[in-house]
């Protein structure tokens, strides 16, 4: 059963956001830009021996919702064993492709979908041979 394995925070100012989360929660950041092909910072939220997940910080691709126009939230990504099968289930359930499947070279397959309520979710299949 897929479970959340990663979250993403979209921001207007990456350095300002890194400073905020480092100060507020003690989070640290690792540069994953080479895997993504664009500025992207991995978020380390704590010790791997403790419960919890890590995330990513990236530049917002569109304007944030105005006040009182919906939630401006983190995107959760589910770890899956079979990307294509999971995508088929999402589409069969009424979901839509938001950003299609893409290779995170040498790491995984990643894509984003809208649920039936317009919320964005990600799916991620680890694959060191993804290109």
Mean model confidence by pLDDT? 91
In angstroms, what separates the terminal alpha carbons?
26 Å
Number of strands: 8
**Based on helices, strands and strand pairing, what is the structural class?**
alpha+beta
Strand order of the largest sheet: 2-3-4-1-5-8-7-6
- Beta fraction: 35-45%
Looking at how many chains there are and whether they match, the oligomeric state comes to: single chain
Task: Give the uncertain stretches in residue-range form.
Answer: none
Summarize the structure in words:
The chain has helices at residues 14-25, 33-36, 83-92, and strands at 3-11, 28-31, 40-44, 54-59, 75-79, 96-104, 108-114, 120-126. With 131 residues, the protein is of the alpha+beta class. It has an 8-stranded mixed beta sheet with strand order 2-3-4-1-5-8-7-6. The two termini are 26 Å apart.
Outline the fold blueprint:
Blueprint: E1 3-11, H1 14-25, E2 28-31, H2 33-36, E3 40-44, E4 54-59, E5 75-79, H3 83-92, E6 96-104, E7 108-114, E8 120-126
List the keywords:
3 helices, 8-stranded mixed β-sheet, alpha+beta, 131 residues
What's the short version?
This protein is α+β, with helices and mostly antiparallel strands. 20% of the residues lie in helices and 40% in strands.
């Amino acid at each position: 059963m897929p479970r959340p394995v990663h979250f993403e925070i979209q921001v207007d100012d990456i350095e300002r956001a890194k400073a905020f989360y480092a100060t507020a929660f003690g989070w640290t950041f690792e540069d994953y830009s080479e895997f993504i092909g664009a500025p992207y910072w991995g978020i380390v939220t704590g010790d791997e021996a403790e419960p919890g997940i890590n995330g990513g910080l990236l530049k917002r691709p569109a304007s944030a919702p105005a006040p009182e126009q919906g939630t401006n939230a983190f995107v959760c990504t589910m770890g899956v064993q079979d990307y294509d099968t999971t995508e088929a289930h999402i589409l069969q359930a009424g979901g839509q492709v938001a950003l299609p499947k893409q290779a995170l070279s040498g790491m995984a397959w990643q894509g984003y979908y809208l649920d039936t309520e317009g919320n964005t979710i990600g799916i991620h299949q680890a694959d060191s041979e993804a290109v």
